[in-house]
Structures are given as structure tokens and as C-alpha cells.
């Protein structure tokens, strides 16, 4: 038995505060705080990537849909965007083992991969992309 929550935001970095407020209001006592903080960081990174990269050429009103599933065994995050799809696994494999602090990019994907026990990005039949991040508890 678990719980399911969803939120839809526009593609605007100013929405991060609302995202964090929503996410943190849902933290169950059964999830270790270190895991929840890691998931919070991953969610903000995923949302920021969707705004900055997937939706960079789209109107600010373009929605980003987020779902959160929480059970005693795992937490699963889904984030849908309307950008051009890309091969997440190849991008992560192509990243250098160590990323320079002054690097323009790459840290976010590495961060997501390090926090998640499972990480997937796929094109859906409705034209959206879904990022799935699963963390085992």
C-alpha cells in the first residue's frame, strides 16, 4: 500500500519554491531524511533540466507534470516534459568520470544517476517524455 500525489507546473524556474513546498509536505515519517533530501535534490534538478533544456524553445505556459509514488519499500518520481527526446543512458555513459566544477553541464545527470536506484527517460505515445526515478528504501 502506498500513496500517490501529482502536481503540474509551468516551465518557469520561479516555480521551484512551489515544487519544494509540495514535495516536502508529502514526506512520510517512514522515509529516512537523508533519502528524502536526496530525492528533493533530484526532483529540483530534473525540473530545472526540463525548464532549461527540454522547454527552452517552448512557451513558459508549457506544463511539466510531476507524480510521486511512496510506499514502505520505495519512492518513485515521474516527471513529464514536452521537449525533444534524448538517450539518457548514452548521455550518462558519455560523461567523464569526474566533472570539473566549472563545467557547463553534466553534473545534473550524474547527480540523478547517483541518487536513483533506477533511472529511465522515455518518449511516450502522446509526444511527452517521462523521466522515472526510483529509490529503494
From TrEMBL:
<keyword id="KW-0067">ATP-binding</keyword>
<dbReference type="InterPro" id="IPR036890">
    <property type="entry name" value="HATPase_C_sf"/>
</dbReference>
<dbReference type="InterPro" id="IPR050267">
    <property type="entry name" value="Anti-sigma-factor_SerPK"/>
</dbReference>
<dbReference type="InterPro" id="IPR003594">
    <property type="entry name" value="HATPase_dom"/>
</dbReference>
<keyword id="KW-0547">Nucleotide-binding</keyword>
<dbReference type="Pfam" id="PF13581">
    <property type="entry name" value="HATPase_c_2"/>
</dbReference>
<keyword id="KW-0418">Kinase</keyword>
<protein>
    <submittedName>
        <fullName>ATP-binding protein</fullName>
    </submittedName>
</protein>
<keyword id="KW-0723">Serine/threonine-protein kinase</keyword>
<keyword id="KW-0808">Transferase</keyword>
<dbReference type="GO" id="GO:0005524">
    <property type="term" value="F:ATP binding"/>
</dbReference>
<feature type="domain" description="Histidine kinase/HSP90-like ATPase">
    <location>
        <begin position="11"/>
        <end position="135"/>
    </location>
</feature>
Amino acid at each position: 500500500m502506498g500513496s500517490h500525489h501529482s502536481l503540474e507546473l509551468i516551465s518557469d524556474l520561479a516555480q521551484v519554491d512551489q515544487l519544494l513546498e509540495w514535495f516536502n509536505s508529502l514526506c512520510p515519517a517512514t522515509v529516512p531524511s537523508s533519502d528524502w533530501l536526496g530525492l528533493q535534490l533530484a526532483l529540483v534538478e530534473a525540473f530545472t533540466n526540463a525548464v532549461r533544456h527540454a522547454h527552452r524553445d517552448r512557451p513558459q505556459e508549457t506544463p511539466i507534470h510531476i507524480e510521486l509514488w511512496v510506499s514502505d519499500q520505495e519512492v518513485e518520481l515521474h516527471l513529464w516534459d514536452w521537449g525533444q527526446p534524448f538517450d539518457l543512458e548514452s548521455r550518462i555513459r558519455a560523461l567523464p568520470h569526474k566533472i570539473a566544477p566549472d563545467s557547463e553541464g553534466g553534473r545534473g545527470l550524474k547527480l540523478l544517476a547517483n541518487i536513483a536506484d533506477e533511472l529511465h527517460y522515455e518518449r511516450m505515445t502522446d509526444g511527452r517524455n517521462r523521466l522515472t526515478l526510483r529509490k529503494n528504501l
